[in-house]
Amino acid sequence: MPQLKKILAPLLTIAILSGSAVAVAQNAPKPEQLIKWRQSAFQVIAWNNGRVKANVEGTYNKEEVVKAANTIAAVANAGLGSLFAPGSDKGKGWHDTSTKPEAFTDKRFGELAGNFIKEANELAKVAANSDQAAVKAQFGALGKTCKACHDDFKTKD
Amino acid sequence: MPQLKKILAPLLTIAILSGSAVAVAQNAPKPEQLIKWRQSAFQVIAWNNGRVKANVEGTYNKEEVVKAANTIAAVANAGLGSLFAPGSDKGKGWHDTSTKPEAFTDKRFGELAGNFIKEANELAKVAANSDQAAVKAQFGALGKTCKACHDDFKTKD
């Protein structure tokens, strides 16, 4: 029955591909989970930003600044982009997402994320090798990349 | 008036010390903030644990495992102990704290945290230098340190 085979073969292919797609979708974290993780990741960044800020504005503890800068850099490099997967533009993690829908369509979002990673890596280097004044300057450069992205892609609530 | 000075001097000392204490307390993050940060930090660890797990149980992507392991190690070394400051034994961050009161009094809590840091650092090393089988084994060792602490110091909710 070569004709039946001709008809069945593509159907089987579709069935297998659909099966894989379902399997991937089943393993993929739900939007609510992605949103919770990204909200958590940015809280960890905020915690460590606050530590660097306190140290550059007050008594400087190099060990603490190095830890904080390394943590910011590690989270920045963790692959945060994967937490902004398609379908996670709406939903509630710890709270309703603060990410504007534009972040999922405008390629500037990725470019601004790249700037953040670059300056976070630089802060970790400066923290390890330089003094309070240099860290303060680089912390300012990092803050600008945070603000640039928040201005365009984060809701104000 | 040497006698008045004798009376006033210790009062002044107390006033100054109290002032410093108040200043410190004003700058110190509130328990609710500490709880929110620590809940966030453990979510970031959970996110990256899940990525390592998926990679050691399925298709192995070394680059992703290295990122995930580095993130776990960085958060482990960030100084999580400071997020369990006295007074943060009760309270609500994203939700009511899951940390048992014993964590704030039993020195085993710190010892178990030390084990977690040690195995997290080892996982980052193994991820960078070894293969899937070695990462799987070390990921098991790390998981034991998580469980040991959760068993005794985390509520079951």
CATH class membership of chain A: Mainly Alpha
**Radius of gyration over C-alpha positions of chain A, nearest whole angstrom:** 22 Å
Helix proportion of chain A: over 70%
How confident is the prediction overall: mean pLDDT of chain A? 88
Identify the CATH homologous superfamily of chain A: Cytochrome c/b562
Quaternary organisation of the protein chains: homodimer
Secondary-structure element string of chain A: HHHHH
* Straight-line N-to-C gap of chain A: 65 Å
Organism (chains A, B): Undibacterium amnicola
Protein name (chains A, B): Cytochrome c
InterPro entries (chains A, B): Cyt_c/b562, Cyt_c_II, Cyt_c_prime, Cyt_c_prime_subgr
Keywords (chains A, B): Electron transport, Heme, Iron, Metal-binding, Signal, Transport
Question: What does this protein look like?
Answer:
Two copies of one chain form a homodimer. Chain A is an all-alpha fold. The first copy, chain A, is 71% helix and 0% strand. Chain A has five helices and no strands. The first copy, chain A, has helices spanning 2-27, 31-57, 62-76, 108-129, 132-153. In chain A, helix 2 runs antiparallel to helix 5, helix 3 packs antiparallel against helix 4 (108-129) and helix 4 (108-129) packs antiparallel against helix 5. The N and C termini of chain A lie far apart (65 Å). Residues 9-24 of chain A have low confidence and may be disordered.
